[in-house]
Amino acid sequence: MHFRATLFALLFAAAPLPAIAETPAQPSATAVAGYTHAVQELAIEALSHLGISYRWGGESRETGLDCSGLVRNVFRNAIGLDLPRTAAEMATVGDRIKRNELQPGDLVFFNTMRRAFSHVGIYLGEGKFVHAPSSGGKVRVESLNVSYWSKRFNGGRRLLDESLTDGGTIAAALLR
């Protein structure tokens, strides 16, 4: 539990969530809390995978993960959502978003194999994302601003709905 608290403090102490105006169009406080909880759980779970070796087709912490295996594990373990197996299939779920619209918990896609949506990661905020790179690599955090990633960015997908009311039971409300 100490590990999770430390990760939470590092992730969210420096970047508070923006204030939400009190208008009828805004989500309720319960919805905001559920959404915030889900995003925090995703970030904590994603960072707990740092250092795990890359393995093509890999889907477990013990034997290694590829990019989509990492994303699937994180979403399943953090919020109970089972995503499609490949990055290209993941690129068809949720809402399409532009780079300047990215929020923590969104999926980020890249063209790394001369085809769109061949690589996926999870956006953490402040231009950073976590991913399982390629053979010989380990799960790590990188910047979208690095030339390699910036040139290959294909877009993002938002799976989390800000109107969520309970971070523990949101899987049914995520995919549209």
Task: Using brief descriptors, characterize the structure shown.
176 residues, alpha+beta, endopeptidase fold (from Nostoc punctiforme), two-stranded antiparallel sheet, 6 helices, 32% helix, 18% strand, globular, disordered C terminus
Describe this structure in words.
The radius of gyration is 16 Å and the shape is globular. It has six helices and eight strands, in the order H-H-E-E-H-H-E-E-E-E-E-H-E-H. The protein starts with a helix and ends with a helix. Strand 4 (107-110) and strand 5 (119-125) form a beta hairpin. Helix 2 (29-47) packs across helix 3 (67-79). It is of the alpha+beta class and 176 residues long. It has a single domain, classed as Alpha-Beta Complex (endopeptidase fold (from Nostoc punctiforme)). The longest helix is centred in the first third of the chain and has 19 residues, at 29-47. Residues 1-24 and 165-176 have low confidence and may be disordered.
